[in-house]
Amino acid sequence: MSSLATRPADRAVGRIGEHVASLDWQRLHEAIDERGFAVTEPVLGKAECRTLAGLYDDASLFRSRIVMARHSFGRGEYQYFSYPLPEWVAEMRVAFYAHLAPVANRWHAALNSGIRFPDEHRDFLNRCHDAGQTQPTPLLLRYGVGDYNCLHQDLYGEHVFPLQVAILLSEPGADFTGGEFVLTEQRPRMQSRPEVVGLTQGAAVVFAVNERPVAGKRGVYRVRMRHGVSQVKSGHRHVLGLIFHDAL
Description:
Elements: H1 15-21, H2 25-35, E1 37-39, H3 46-54, E2 62-67, E3 74-75, E4 77-81, H4 87-110, H5 121-130, E5 139-143, E6 148-152, E7 163-168, E8 176-178, E9 181-186, E10 193-197, E11 204-208, E12 211-216, E13 219-229, E14 232-235, E15 237-242
Antiparallel strand pairs: 1-11, 2-4, 3-6, 4-5, 5-15, 6-13, 7-11, 7-15, 8-14, 9-10, 9-13, 12-13
Helix pairs in contact: 1-4, 2-4
């Protein structure tokens, strides 16, 4: 078992969690509300990125492996971590949730949803687990030449946290080329709008899982968002995905 292993979401936040907490969350919240996503400064250093990417080959850390082509998801593969999560993964999941829960609650209020999210991630996971959503959803993705990820949403059950995080573990231009992170949004009675999101190694993109509220002339309406990855042209691309709800 990797030395990064720990129990899920029940430890004091460490150095990486403190780095997440120190981000300019006012700017990030404004960007998330305005565009449905925001890009952070690097939250992981090069060595930390290499360590996390290197976990991919340790099968003992994962509960399942998905080859995208078998399911028409694209090309490439990813693995879902099992509990206990690696220490840094658990740390970042707790730290990001604490700053995203207020946005999630504001969005649900704007959309007239009666669902509200607790301040602590542990309490939200208890809600998921009580509903049978007990499978951890943080994952590592690995892409090679020609690989890509079709536009999709990560839902997994009745209880869905409306934001998620992807952290680029590889260095663009050095480890891989191509492989851009892509978002689309579908506004009512309009064609889909694409967005290519530039990331540096160790940086995170926070983005909407499914729907977000947008103010219009006739009030607030729902904008549906999807995400994916364009084709990798060379090298290998590794990404850490942080999904805050667990799966059935």
